[in-house]
Amino acid sequence: MHHDDDPALYPTEFVRRYRDAGYWTDDTFADFLVSVTDRHGDREAVVCGGTRMTYRELLAATESTARRFAQLGIGYGDFVIVQLPNTPDFLRTVFALFHLGARPVFSLPAHRRVELTHFIRETRAVALVTTGRHQGFDHRQLARDVLAEISDGPMVIIAGAEPEEFVPLDAADHQEPGPVPPRAHPVPEELAFLQMSGGSTGVPKLIPRSHADYLYSVRESARICGLGPDTRMLVVLPVSHNFTMSSPGVLGALWAGGTVVLTGDPTPSSVFRLIDAEHITITAAVPPLAMTWLTLRPRIDASLRTLEVLQVGGAKFPPEAAARVTPVLGCRLQQVFGMAEGLVNYTRPEDPEDIVTGTQGRPISPDDEILILDDEGRKVPEGEPGHLLTRGPYTIRRYHHDADPGAFTDDGFYRTGDIVRRLPTGHLIVEGRDKDHINRGGEKISAEEVENHLIAHPDITDAALVAVPDEYLGERSCAWIISTNPPPVSEIREFLIRRGLAGYKLPDRYEFDTGFPLTGVGKISRKALRRRLADTLNQDHTTGETEP
User: Fold this and answer.
1) Sign of CA dihedral 467, 360, 206, 95
2) Helix axes 55-71, 29-40, angle to 10 degrees
3) Is the pLDDT of residue 263 over 90?
4) 3-class secondary structure, 2
5) For residues 393 and 365, is the Cβ–Cβ distance under 8 A?
6) Which neighbouring-strand residues pair with 104?
7) If both were cysteines, with which of 188, 285, 444, 488 could 198 make a disulfide (CB 3.0 to 4.6 Å apart)?
8) HSE on the CB side for 24, CA within 13 Å?
9) Could you read off the pLDDT of 9-66 as tens digits, one per residue?
10) Alpha helix positions (H), 45-163
11) Start and end of every AMP-dependent synthetase/ligase domain (predicted)?
12) pLDDT tens-digit profile of 311-336?
């Protein structure tokens, strides 16, 4: 069934322009794995723990999963929330949904009740595919909590062992499998899946991506990053992140006929051991992770001689750390600056060293239009910082259900919320964010969302969440709490967890006061308030109660 009540994702004139330029083709995700298997069938596609699969084996697993989903009633145009860790189950689930013309909604393993209920309500998802236990957390219990909140909730499908009362991803009996359902033929310009914004306004917004626009970014990313059949990519970050999926990510590596090695363990000893054991050529990290690897490299016995490229993205990578990558890890650094809404920038293999260590790259496409504007919306002089707006062949024109229309200009430019400078070469340097949100090692936290949860506590009168600079994560969060009867920090944390707040959003530090330190200011915007509190904290690191 086809119940896409969404209007066209791109205006007709741009569809024509991007097709004429050859960016958009007739390729779709329904055909992706089949066409790659035609070219690279016997090559190794996926490695995870003791599991190894060729392209042909991955395709067979995908087709049997598609058959399973069809038997469970999942069909064309249906939304299915996928919340799976870095395992082959993720790949076969997603490709099976594409086979049927169903639409994955990519959730992160860190998402909790607040996010999942929001995604289900926004998409009327027919199913949630998740895992049993992951990193000590029981996703089946999370599913129960979600279903308790949504009367007509989705079917819950559990990958791996012990589905308990839920539907197992793999049918118990493998008798009488029946035929593989026919492969869907979606229109390349239509909605292929929904991704999450790393955005700043509370729950993530849903990002509609089409087959044509996303596959263009995957193919071009694979080309820019020089991937080929000899690529062996180690995937450490959550596989459903836009960075990990397409920049060039697992999809880029598979498109090129390379091998994807999946792991859920980002610790340096495990990562370095895998790099050696699996002859890894490329991997990607967010800055805090990259910095940990750099720090611990001298203490770990590993050769890393096959590693050619370390990609770093998700947040600003300090130039001092960037300069250490090649001397310490013996590989090339590639900086990546992108967003799930579209625009992705890379430093290129041929870029000089100062560009690689000091910038966040330049756009994928000659048709990526970049505007850098001041607060009044005027273009800034070249090299001056300003608000980044962008439009192009793989940048969305609106969010799903038109959430946050203010994020787009009338002529279709996306307001990224980033403050950047542009060099004459076209390379961008990210200076920061213009919105009230905290970038904690690549995870974006909305101050407003956490404040609303804090203020719900009976003993908290008011609260402000502010960013405090942190050498390791870039920024940490500090909750400034106004209370006449301050609850213990442990109780506040428990309260936030009970309210379903994802772990990475919990404040790192707490300050207690009877009023905000704003003498003689009277009313003040929350944005200005947060700025003042941050200034106060930065002047004095010794006050208040800090987290152990």
Assistant:
1) negative
2) 150
3) yes
4) coil
5) yes
6) 80
7) 444
8) 23
9) 999 999 999 999 999 999 999 999 999 999 999 999 999 999 999 999 999 999 999 9
10) 55-71, 88-100, 113-123, 139-149
11) 38-400
12) 999 888 888 899 999 999 999 999 99
Q: Note the pLDDT of residue 2.
A: 39
- Structural domains of the chain sorted by starting position, each given as residue range(s) with its CATH number in brackets: 29-42+55-185 (3.40.50.980), 222-433 (3.40.50.12780), 437-539 (3.30.300.30)
Q: Is residue 59 a contact partner of residue 22, using CB atoms and an 8 Å limit?
A: no
3-state SS assignment for residue 391: strand
CA dihedral of residues 103, 108, 112, 117 (deg, nearest 10): -20
Average pLDDT over residues 279-285: 98
For residue 462, the model assigns a pLDDT of: 82
Of 150-164, 224-238, 526-540, minimum mean pLDDT range: 526-540
User: Cα 104–400–36 angle (5° rounding)?
Assistant: 35
| Predicted model pTM | 0.85
What's phi and psi for 195, nearest 5 deg? -110, 170
> In the block, which residue shows the tokens 């997603």?
94
Longest CA pairwise span in the chain (Å): 77
- Given a contact cutoff of 8 angstroms between Cβ atoms, the answer to whether 547 and 489 are in contact is yes
CB count within 10 Å of CB 12 equals 9
Distance CA 138, CA 123 (A): 24
Asked if 80 and 127 count as a contact pair (C-beta separation under 8 A), the reply is: yes
The residue type of 520 is G
Quick one: which of 275, 279, 273, 281 has its CA closest to 253?
A: 281
3-state secondary structure of 480: strand
